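ok new one. same drill as before - structure tokens go in, u give me an amino acid for every spot. 319 of them this time. try not to just spam alanines like last time pls lmao
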């Protein structure tokens, strides 16, 4: 049975004083960078607000809170609009509030993931369900995004706060912690007595901020070397190199390289085979092979396997 999404009911459209409105405390977006809003601010200065904000009145306080239109409201304040058009709806429950916010924003550009994770945590606690599938159905988020959010929630608050810094220049992107997560929870690093997740995270942050790590995706190379060390029975050597890498901020990531000639050669072979198969399928006429059931079954199995492997890597896979 499809997940039933809580909805809020409309009351009507009217104008409200700009200073009567308040930010929604359960907005999963939270961070709004001023530079990104410049085009919207210029538009509102020229033609005012054309699409009404969606708001509700809190019975307890009588205050109006925004469900949809936070950026429009902020720009209206900055350009000095005294009133804004609003579409008032009935006050939602906590679950309806959070779910509605997710549903409103799900088709828009991605926003910072840590605020989303915090609201997802509140929703999971409220409905007493931490299932990725249930949360994806409720919020409209891709299931892989829910998994990424849960990874962020596993980090201590001080790291979460770094992802919430109001200054974009100081803010640490969520991708840093998501890419680091597999290393912190790897079965090989768990064997090292010296390995402490928070201390290692601090060391990697220093490397990231000094550009010794050129991209957060380099953590995938670290994970690959951990895997290779286990297969080659070189866990001890890898432990020494990883500790040296963490202790020396200037040491490059190449210091961790384990003999990967066979792995690299296999990867190139698979990539070439994948490219060849892509070209064959791209040139295939579906009408001509319409009745070849075994062909389509084989391609479906291949598609499912590729998606499975991509999910294991933490890659986002479209539905």
């Amino acid at each position: 049975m499809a997940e039933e999404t809580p909805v809020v009911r409309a009351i009507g459209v009217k104008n409200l004083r700009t200073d009567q409105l308040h930010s929604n405390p359960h907005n999963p977006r939270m961070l709004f960078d001023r530079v990104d809003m410049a085009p919207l601010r210029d538009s509102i200065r020229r033609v005012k607000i054309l699409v009404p904000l969606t708001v509700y009145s809190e019975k307890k306080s009588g205050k109006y809170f925004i469900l949809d239109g936070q950026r429009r409201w902020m720009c209206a304040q900055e350009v000095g609009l005294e009133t804004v058009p609003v579409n008032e709806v009935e006050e939602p429950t906590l679950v309806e509030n959070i779910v509605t916010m997710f549903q409103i924003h799900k088709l828009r550009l991605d926003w910072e993931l840590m605020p989303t994770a915090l609201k997802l945590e509140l929703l999971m606690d409220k409905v007493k369900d931490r299932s990725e599938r249930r949360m994806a159905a409720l919020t409209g988020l891709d299931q892989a995004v829910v998994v990424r959010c849960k990874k962020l929630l596993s980090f201590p608050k001080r790291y979460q706060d770094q992802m919430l810094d109001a200054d974009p220049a100081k803010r640490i992107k969520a991708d840093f912690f998501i890419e680091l997560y597999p290393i912190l929870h790897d079965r090989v690093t768990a064997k090292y007595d010296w390995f402490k997740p928070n201390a290692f995270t601090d060391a990697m942050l220093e490397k990231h901020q000094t550009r010794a790590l050129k991209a957060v995706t380099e953590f995938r190379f670290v994970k690959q070397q951990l895997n290779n060390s286990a297969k080659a029975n070189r866990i001890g050597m890898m432990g020494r190199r990883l500790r040296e890498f963490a202790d020396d901020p200037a040491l490059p990531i190449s210091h961790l390289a384990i003999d990967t000639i066979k792995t690299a050669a296999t990867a190139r072979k698979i990539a070439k085979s994948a490219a060849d198969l892509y070209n064959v399928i791209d040139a295939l006429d579906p009408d001509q092979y319409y009745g070849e059931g075994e062909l389509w079954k084989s391609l479906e199995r291949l598609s499912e396997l590729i998606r499975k492997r991509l999910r294991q890597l933490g890659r986002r896979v479209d539905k």
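The chain is about 50% helix and 10% strand. and btw The mean pLDDT is 85.
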